[in-house]
Amino acid sequence: MRFERQVAQQLYKQGQISEELFQKACPDHSTLLGLNSLVILPKSDRTTIDELDESLDMIALDDLADLSEINEIEEPSLDEVPNVPSFVSPKEIILKAREVSENEWLEAAAKVIGIRFLPEIDLDRVNLDYSQSFRVVYAKEHKILPLWQEDGRLLVGIADPLTQNALSAFYRLFSEPIEPVLIPEQPLIDTINKVFDRRAAASQVIDEIDAEQVVDVDAGLNDIDIDIIDTDDEAPIIRLVNAILSDAIKDRASDIHIEPFEREISIRFRVDGVLKDAFSTPPPKRFHAPVASRIKVMAGLDIAERRIPQDGRIKLKVAGKEIDIRLSTLPTAHGERLVMRILDKSSVLRDLSDIGMGTQVLTNINELITRSYGIILVTGPTGSGKTTSLYASLSKINSPTRNIITVEDPVEYQIGGISQTQVNSKVGLTFSAGLRSILRQDPDVVMIGEIRDRETAEIAIQASLTGHLVFSTLHTNDSAGAVTRLVDMSVEPFLISSSVIGMMAQRLVRTLCSSCKEPVVPTDVELGQLGYTRERFLQESSGVVYKGRGCPECRGDGYRGRTGIYELLVVDDEIRALIMSNVDSNTIKKRAITKGMLTLRDDGTRKVFSGETSIAEVLRVTQDDLLSFD
């Protein structure tokens, strides 16, 4: 009760409230009717704002945690306190009398009270798990929202420094120490809306659906362009599917896997390259058929056909962002398995310097992409960032003086100034057919989404030999493996050696969470797996590496985001001679290493030493890359 008692005493001592009102509010100096009744006075009796500021400055708030001791207090009626107008919050009265902005007043109040002021909220940092513990009505009524953990304390945003009772409830609700922060009302309300109103957690939707509500969705076959936020009034299954999609996009998932089993459905998101369960408790099997039907409806597929695989496309809008989803279905013993690849059309294209390339790789790739002809191949498994690297390269050389044309499957991101063609096998527009047509369009630079067969490879080689710069991808484990893959397609070695100018293998490694990563001393076994002795490690590093402890920021994973590791093989005269001799890829790779090429594991190890990722993560994605340590 100290906060309200001190305010009452200070106002009474300065003659700003009457003795009668003070006795009503604090009859035995131990109970109060509430601070609001003291500051809401008729204009003639109310303190000036300057005097009130002076009063508040005199109040010593030793510890904001004292607010947690304040119990719920019933406001006095108008009959009990004379001359009290209808309720207006003290904050509103002060702002109106002061004629200052809300930000100015809150910043000053924060200094007086001794807490932080945040002019805006970083929505990406808000931990949505905390919002599951109370209702949106409570958050909106009290203008209060738990935000995120920082230095072991839970930050709680409040729009009014007099929000004692709501804050008191949070002390009881959460086990973490509470640190209130003042936030302007509108940014706080906007965040509350986004956290609660615009994100119906899939698990909550499941809990709301009764068994009799689970039916097949067979309407809306043309519902292809969908805003999944505005779905509060939709059928339960529609809301469930939209919530799954929304959760996946919020979690930065690249893929959604929905797989039926005998008694339940496995729903997993691939986040930062790793599959994770989307639900702590898997949904029951009865949800599978209607969920699968709804997703197929959205993709324009035949919901009655469940015996053969189908492919489709879904176009969504989430909070104004355009999302493209590629759907693939596959019949299994317990029903159709669905996998959705998520492509964020609004994602900003990355620069070559922003995707994790080291100085050596960046210098070499910049030299290669400015040549006038030749083939540059980017290799790696699906989801290793090949398309991002190609787009970054094209963006780097994109200019009005160059005619750049691509043929892709699909067009993942649109680049201004570049003509992009999408493969459509149903009408005969394959990579090879598209490439033939592109070469009649007077291109300077051509990008082929993937070289899949001999015909496409030969056309690409012919294009490079006739003065075009060609970019493409292959599925191989390392850079030198691109030669073997082309030979397997029956491409002659002399054609490869005369056209290919560079081969770059890449992988994506998860980056450590900046909020919880901590230094550790690696064991001799871990160093040995990297190909290092203790002595060499101490010579080339700071003596420690890092690992993620796990925190709310990274949802306990210890990782947040990804970066690339690269192995760039530049084809010079010596490498060209080896390719002409038709030697195996290991021989080519060994020679490139002796000439200074960094392998995938070399580049990954450098990122371990710099604290970007962990030893375990580099070993996970480079388990086949052992050649450089033989």
Question: Can you characterise this structure?
Answer:
Among the domains are: 99 residues, no CATH class; 143 residues, 2-Layer Sandwich (Beta-Lactamase); 196 residues, P-loop containing nucleotide triphosphate hydrolases (Rossmann fold). The protein has 24 helices and 20 strands. The protein has a seven-stranded mixed β-sheet, covered by helices on one side. Strands 14-13-15-16-12-17-20 form a seven-stranded mixed β-sheet, sandwiched between helices. Strands 1-4-3-2 form a four-stranded mixed β-sheet, with helices on both faces. Strand 9 and strand 10 form a beta hairpin. About 13% of the residues have low confidence.
Per DSSP E runs of 2 or more residues, the count of β-strands stands at 20
CATH fold description of the domain at 352-508 and 562-600: Rossmann fold
**Tell me about the biggest sheet?**
7 strands, mixed
Principal-axes geometry comes out as globular
Strand order of the largest sheet: 5-9-10-11-6-7-8
Proportion of beta-strand residues: 15-25%
Radius of gyration: 32 Å
Q: Helix amount, in percent?
A: 25-40%
